[in-house]
């Protein structure tokens, strides 16, 4: 007993601590239940957006590696290759100039829409499951994430009713333009940082307003946060950042004109904060942007014609073919299935206009209306197009002609900025109605809901993609090319037929390819162009693959073939079973490089 007595005081705290464990666990459970109850509506909205995103992209999910977006498979091939190259950052093998395409010159990743931030963030998924899985995941997450981000902005910053916020955010994340861009343009659909940028700008403005008591610490944190988010967005998609910045500029001017007292009070602090944000962002982005425009394989101009990529005026009140109530006949009003950016339909246009009028001359309403009108007008391009016919009426976009960088933007994509602006007007109107009394309490939400029904998205069409050769999928390529070396698939990839790039994607870009699908300065006078010119041997092989036949091969062709192989740094050439005119290609390559070797389901030529 004497030995037990001294230990009793020491044991008491331990026993007490053990007895507190259930109490602490119960307390955490209570707090968790309270948090879930408090945010139950937000969680429900998030689940709804996730389910809708899954519905739109569900055609990819049975087998992401075996399915492809049927309306734009070329761009999906390109973006999957981007994701594979980006994922190599996790392996310590990454640079802004990659030699894994267009060997030996390489590809400037900043000059292409390579979604570097997304590719690096999802690198573990890519390396474990493959780039097609990452692509399918991002296609859905970008839709749901964009909608959820706008919902949180509407509820937290505007203080809007959850139903109003959900309706408006649904349009922002699942509007016709965003769903259309989901046909492989990951850099355009990843807009979940845009509401964060808007929130930080609003936070900076509020902190700079002396009426609320200027908060220098809050101004500084807002400026730093803005610099960070803008820097990340550059590596997600510069075009989205450009559209966001231009829209906010137009809105800021309109808001300032509507509330000049706020302008006088807050302008000095707000402008100072924006300069701090711009300076900090420039410290991070200075070198990457220099590399994009003036570095190796960089381009300083756009390659797309603004005349070709102009929105048809009629398309604004037409429903998208990718909407539930749309018609395939409307496709003739745009350049392709990834550019249904303006197809809001007349019911939504009428209701949005009615909401703007009903809300009155509030500064935010005027700013949204001004931004929507300016961006919609710019989408019409240099000359107004009506039902496919180009008129002599100049569009406001003509004012941007000749401006560096800006005049390389695709006019019809300016329309994407109209979605969140129209969504904001709908949110403000429904919120006002739900907080009021009388007939408007039911009439306005019902009108908005009915206007949104026709633009509900339909699932994106998908199709089976050709299976990869066993030579690639089973890793037999290593028998003829070392990791980091160059494999020449025959025929070589081109912008119109980039399919051999899937070989490199499946191998996590462990080997390089000549030529391919990318943007580089191969146009006249070093201007931007899609892809590069063909070497003589590449042209010869592409003609055989296209038309068949066995061209006469002499010493001249063999010497040229040796020079081209040396130029590419090629380790071997490969023709997979099932390739069009495979027998003729094999006979031609035998003449150029000697007898082939059989490896799995491919013929190879070591050079």
Describe the protein.
- This protein is α+β, with helices and mostly antiparallel strands and 607 residues long.
- 53% of the residues lie in helices and 7% in strands.
- The chain contains 22 helices and 12 strands.
- It has helices at residues 8-38, 40-56, 73-87, 116-121, 123-129, 131-156, 162-174, 176-181, 186-189, 194-208, 216-234, 238-258, 260-294, 346-359, 363-378, 418-435, 440-452, 470-473, 501-506, 536-547, 555-568, 582-593; strands at residues 67-69, 97-98, 107-108, 383-386, 389-394, 462-464, 486-489, 519-520, 529-530, 570-576, 597-599, 602-606.
- The strands form 5 sheets. Strands 7-10-12-11 form a 4-stranded mixed β-sheet. Strands 1-6 form a two-stranded antiparallel ribbon. A two-stranded antiparallel sheet has the order 2-3.
- A hairpin with a 2-residue loop joins strand 11 and strand 12 (602-606).
- The model is unreliable at 1-7 (pLDDT under 50).
Number of helices: 22
> Which descriptor suits the 3D outline?
globular
Briefly note the structural class of the backbone: alpha+beta
β-strand percent reads 5-15%
Helix content: 40-55%
Overall pLDDT metric: 93
Uncertain ranges:
1-7
Q: Kindly, what is the distance between the CA atoms of the first and last residues, rounded to a whole number of angstroms? A: 89 Å
- Report the biggest beta sheet as strand number plus sense, adding barrel if it closes: 4 strands, mixed
Total strands: 12
The Cα radius of gyration reads: 28 Å
| Spatial ordering of strands, largest sheet | 7-10-12-11
